[in-house]
Each structure stands twice: as C-alpha cells, then as structure tokens.
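[Meeting: bench + compute handoff]

Bench side (C.D.) handed over the final construct sequence. Compute side (W.E.) agreed to return the predicted structure before the next meeting so the bench team could plan truncations. Sequence as handed over:
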Amino acid sequence: MKSNEHMPHDHTPLGVAPWCLIDTGFDAGRAALHETLFCVGNGRIGLRGAHEEGACWPGTEQDAIYINGFHDVEDIHYPENAHSLPRQNQFIVAVPNGKAVWWRIDEETFDPRTGVIEGFERTLDFESGMLTRAFVWVSPNGRRVAVTSHRMVSFEREAVCALRYEIRVLDGAARITISSAIDARAHEMEASDDPRVGSANAAKALVEVAAERMLGQVVLLHRAKHSGLAVATALHSQLRTEKHGLASGEDAGAAACLGHRFEVEVVQGECLQLDKTFGFVTSQHAAQDELMALASRAVDEAALAGFDLLCAEQRAYLWRFWQDADVRIEGDDAMQQGLRFNL
C-alpha cells in the first residue's frame, strides 16, 4: 500500500465560491496557512483550523485553541537597566484542546502518513458558521473508511464549541474504537518570530489545578504560571450508530489527557456518529472557585440541546448578521468571497 509519509505539495489553490472557503486537496506545505484561514471563532474563543486528529497530519504547526485575552507573562531581562523600560512581556497561551479525536479500525490506528488519503475536501461556510471536512482513508491493509467532521464555535452560547465526527466503513464489517478527549499536554515548541508558532514559554505556561469526572463529563481546571489567570475546560461526548443507537463508553486517559473511549461493531456502510460538546470559562469572567461548575453547566445545557439545535441557532444568528452586514458584488465571485470572508 502506498504511503503518505511524504505527501506531495501540490499547492492546490483554494476554490472560489461566494459563500464559502473551499480546500479541495490536502497540502502539507500550506498546512500552517490553512490552519489560520480555516479558523472558527466567536470573538471570545478561537479554534485554529488544524485537524481533529492533531499532529499526525503532516505540516501541522499549531493544533491550538485560544481565548481572547487569556495570557501569561514573563520577565524581560536587559543587559543594561534604565528608567521606564517595560519589565514584563505578555504572550497568548493555548488552552486545553477539547476537539481531540483518535480512532482505529480493528487493529489499525488512523494515521494520514500511512495508507492513502482520497477525496479530501474542507469547507468553511459563511452562512452556517460551520467548518466541514471530508475524506476517505485507505489503510495500509486496504480498509476503506469515509470520515466527515463538522465543527463550530457558538455565537449564541459564548463559552461553547461543538463537533460532530462521523465514520463510515465502506468495505465490510469492522470494530471501531474511538477516543474523545481534552488534551492539555504541553506540546514542545521552539522560539520563533512566526506568530502562528509562538514560543517555548507559551507551550509550558499552564499548570493543572484540578480534574473531575462528573455526570458523564470531564472537567479540568488550569492556571497560567505567572499571570494567575485560570481556565476551566469541560467536555461531554456522545456516540451513536445507525443500527444500535446510543453506545455506552468508558472514562479514558490519564493526567493531562482525559476523556471517553467507545468501542462498537459496525456493518458495511453504517455510520458511527460522535458528538462532542466542550467549553471554556476563565477567571476573566468569574471567580476561580466557580469556573469548573460554570463550564460544566454550559456544556451540559448545550449537550442537552443537541448538535442539530446548536447548528440551527448558529445559522439563525448569522442570518441576522448578514441581513445587516452583507455587501453584494456582481460578476466577481473571488472578490465577493474575499469580502464576506473578512466580514
């Protein structure tokens, strides 16, 4: 089976469409750029456009989630001191990654660097506020698996993000094991002038304060080492299959990477659907001893509403926005696309 370990940089241009941004071929050489262009956010929370499966995708620069204003500080050292020199530097800190998903089919773990990726397409829809991605993975053993994901950051519920992740085995029955996690592990980074990469200090800025499992949720509390700002991250995971409905899972992970694991048997063509609801509350908005309860409540209410209702809320919000904000250009779809993207 051909390997994708050295995926070609075909530099496929982004597609032109008035109401969306379209990527029709994975390009490891432009992964960092596309992580920025396919970001979704609501002004408070921003999810970079890195893939749910994380750094296994070649070219991944920064699989990160950021919260507006959430930062740490470090002292500035000068070879010679002087009056009124700034004493501290502030830098943005990535919060725990609530969108992390990993899976395997039978004994083969999904890894885009092995096997073959076919039919890759990613779309950022300006009307629905949704980032959608689809592809087929042909495993080293020849298994064909279709994967689709839908990701959003809610405009109506400012603390909440939602993800629907679907797997469909195309060539026979299989056992699928899928993990849904909050990944708070500090990924090593090097100092860089590239703002997409950040600094080594930013990679090691969070300290875990508490971790709890409650009512089917995982809730983590972290504090920035020097600024004292704290963030609570909550996650709810639900899996269903077309044949058997809701599937039971188990708590999984340890230390800084906690979540849920599901193992199900599926027949050929059957859809497995994982809904992840996760959210963040910081000490910029509430007292530290209230953060875990507030994050848990926000995620619980959103999970109870369900992914479909969250999508309907998002589309209704953006319909109202475009009624006031849209500027229409006739005869130039590229210009129309660019204008709406910036709006």
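W.E. noted at the follow-up: The helical segments are 31-37, 200-203, 291-305, 307-325, 333-342. C.D. will use this when planning the next construct.
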